[in-house]
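Please decode residue identities from the backbone states below.
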């Protein structure tokens, strides 16, 4: 796994009525690795939780900036950050990973919902600096809940985005068809937000003539999955390197079974969001349940499985470990 970085919290401030911006700098002023828009870090919290957060803001600054929404159904991550994290506290993070990079394009359409604005705010700043034509649409329930609204609406005297508020009649259901028109030239579309929002964006874009390779999405929530023993039968996972094999019952993940048997697995989010545990598959039919891989990657001849959440349609799956 990548070497961990020690950082210090050098600032916390409110973004809207439900989000908290967190500024991180290198411990003892150590320089932090460079990053590009779309990158995220794994944040290791003292409460034992590891969470993924997109880096946001300008990528040429000496700090890392993240923004965390308070989740009503928090499993401990956002609750700790909002209630316990304080300036001066030190944390461990991973180096930035980028599974959602900006591609070369003649023009770009950015669509964000809720806290999904974080990677797209960084993209907007980069596109603005490079002179690439872009449009950013930001969907929120209420204007008061929007993160970075001041920065987005007044960047050097001009607005970087159009804000659509559901309580003002601007919900995605009413506005997506108007905001996603037919692509012109070498255009690319980027969307980030809840899974339902991104599904609606992809469907609307395809109907408007966007090709699959022009549409890029990143989830900040896992796809809701039914995982119970009745639905998920037992299959066997086999290591190609040693031939060792173990059954994976319906109430355990491949990663859990491997760890129980002393096999090192690079885990981070454990929800199929980050790609840390993606592993090549040599034999077997994958039941893909992650949200980090594209549809094309999930149907490619050379496939990878997310050990933390995906399963097997076949009785046995052979992985390159």
């Amino acid at each position: 796994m990548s070497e961990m970085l020690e950082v210090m919290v050098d600032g916390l401030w409110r973004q809207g009525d439900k989000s908290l911006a967190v500024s991180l700098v290198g411990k003892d002023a150590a320089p932090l690795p460079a990053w590009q828009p779309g990158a995220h870090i794994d944040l290791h919290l003292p409460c034992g939780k590891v969470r993924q957060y997109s880096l946001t803001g300008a990528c040429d600054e000496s700090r890392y900036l993240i923004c965390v929404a308070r989740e009503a159904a928090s499993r401990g991550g956002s609750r700790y950050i909002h209630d316990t994290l304080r300036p001066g506290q030190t944390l461990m993070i991973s180096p930035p990973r980028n599974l959602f990079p900006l591609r070369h394009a003649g023009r770009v359409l950015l669509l964000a919902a809720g806290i999904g604005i974080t990677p797209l705010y960084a993209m907007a700043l980069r596109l603005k600096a490079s002179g690439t034509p872009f449009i950013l649409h930001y969907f929120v329930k209420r204007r008061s809940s929007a993160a970075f609204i001041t920065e987005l609406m007044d960047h050097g005297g001009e607005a970087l985005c159009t804000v659509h508020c559901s309580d003002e009649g601007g919900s995605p259901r009413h506005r997506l068809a108007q905001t996603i028109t037919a692509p012109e030239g070498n255009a690319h579309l980027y969307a980030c937000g809840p899974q339902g929002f991104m599904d609606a964006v992809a469907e609307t874009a395809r109907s408007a003539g966007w090709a699959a390779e022009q549409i890029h999405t990143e989830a900040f929530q896992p796809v809701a999955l039914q995982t119970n023993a009745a639905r998920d039968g037992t299959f066997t996972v086999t290591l190609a390197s040693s031939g060792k094999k173990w059954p994976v019952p319906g109430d355990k993940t491949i990663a859990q079974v491997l760890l129980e048997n002393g096999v090192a697995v690079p885990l981070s989010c454990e929800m199929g969001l980050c790609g840390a545990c993606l592993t090549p598959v040599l034999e077997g039919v994958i039941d893909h349940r992650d949200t980090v891989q594209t549809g094309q990657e999930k149907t490619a001849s050379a496939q990878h499985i997310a050990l933390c959440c995906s399963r097997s349609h076949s009785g046995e799956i052979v992985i390159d470990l």
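Observation: The radius of gyration is 20 Å.
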